[in-house]
User: Fold this.
Amino acid sequence: MSNKNPFELRFDVLRMAKEMMDTQHEVANNKFWSMIEQYKDQGKDIQEVYEKYTPQMYKPAAVMEKAEELYKFITKRD
Assistant:
């Protein structure tokens, strides 16, 4: 195990949070395109689905919130 300073730990946690958010967005995107294909196959109007269910990209603030949540676990003393 390496000895990391607090800045390196925070950076690692921030990177982990971003990777988690990327994965969530990718899953939502895949689900969205699956829905589009199903609606298209059923002959339904996909414009409504597109406007209503298009996944929004996360904001930097959401990554920071997730990182803070993860960092609390690291710094928790039991």
Remarks:
- Residues 6-75 form one domain.
